Amino acid sequence: MSELPDAAAEPRQRWRLVVARDLTAPDVTQREVAAAWTTALGSAGLPLVEAGAGRGRSRLSFGAPLPVGMSAERDLIDIVLTETWPVWRVRDALAGHLPDGWRLVDAFDVWLGGPPLAGRVVAADYRIELAGAPDSAALAVVAADLMHARSIARERVRGGSTVTYDLRPLVATITIRPGPPVTVRTRTRFDPELGSGRPEEIVGALSDRSGSALAIASIVRERLLVAEDLDP
Length: 232
Fold this sequence. Notes:
Largest sheet: 9 strands, mixed
Structural class: alpha+beta
Strand content: 35-45%
Radius of gyration: 20 Å
Number of helices: 5
Number of domains: 2
Helix content: 10-25%
């Protein structure tokens, strides 16, 4: 006779963690990042649901993969608990138990039955510092020109071959700050069919349109945005 499921182990609460990763974090793959977070949350004593606890009830889910070596200021991670905890208890449990180079910025109790986090992320804000001393005024004109373009043809390696795609639908904004350093601020979109706009492709498009090579000094993902962040 099969045993009845333990009701105490059923999902009870879903927390959305707002987290930051600095440059001291190890340069590891997203799989290794997920493993480090799983270990850290277990060490913190959080009552996570068991792996495979049901569709849409993953114990740990990320808003979007963070490229190796990139820092972030407000990334999103959802965790699902088998108990209902107040926010102070979640914060206290996590203190001192986060993976190296990560810190907790905020935490929100979100609807347990809501759609998976990854499907809710619709955009990301990036801050890209450029190396050298490019002409920021000329670059601002090029950025405005790109935003008025109907298409921005770019190439991307996929499945071992190079494909051409249109970057324009994946770009919401591009602005230039004179600096120093000269900085590109951009919001890129996430699309279930087209993929996501990559910050290095924004710089590549600026380089192509301006006719001068632009070198990236650093990229920071400032924020991930979910659908409700863009509601009027």
